[in-house]
Design goal:
This protein is of the alpha/beta class. It is built from five helices and six strands; from the N terminus they run βαβαβαβαββα. Helices cover 34% and strands 15% of the residues. α1 packs across α5. The N and C termini lie close together (10 Å). It binds flavin mononucleotide. InterPro entries: Flavoprotein-like_sf, FMN_Rdtase-like_dom, NAD(P)H-dep_reductase.
Length: 177
Amino acid sequence: MTRILLISGSTRDGSTNTAALRTIAAVAPPSVRTELYAGLRELPAFVPGADPAEYPAVSALRAELAAADAVLICTPEYAGTLPGSIKNLLDWTVGTADLYEKPTAWLTVAVPGRGGGAEATLSTVLGYVGAQIVESACTRLPVLGADVGDDGLVGSAEFRSGARQVLAALVAHTPGE
Ligand SMILES: Cc1cc2nc3c(=O)[nH]c(=O)nc-3n(C[C@H](O)[C@H](O)[C@H](O)COP(=O)(O)O)c2cc1C
């Protein structure tokens, strides 16, 4: 069993990024257990040197990261880079072993020509914290709002096929595989 933590960089209700991750969870094979991180809105602003024990939301994040064999991030781009909320999450992992050597990839759902700034920042920050970036799993699968059904999932066969390939590439780089 491979455990993959799915982290959306959007705090928006109706987010296409969160819908993409929800769909990835839905198509995951029985050998993959996914967890969709739900704490981004509640995560406090990073405080350098803070004792995580004083921040239950940070302790919960660290526990979810520790339990994960791999991490998949799906985030929008804001103002040419990452949304502050997910950069804040990543800041909490600086100087910890939370993401160190953790197989990590990102899925970009922005349309072609968009989202490159967010990807570049992810590459920089994940490199800085020592995550093992799984290049073969870093993928672009565009999702528009209209692609998300009433069930909150992306229905297209093309997206779902790509999503399965993302999972397979990530699983192939987890310890024991
Ligand atoms: C504050 C803000 C800034 C944005 N800046 C960019 C940007 O620099 N580049 C870009 O391609 N899209 C930008 N967008 C568009 C979002 O990336 C796009 O709406 C995305 O679908 C939002 O993801 P979500 O549906 O998961 O919330 C911006 C959106 C907002 C709200």
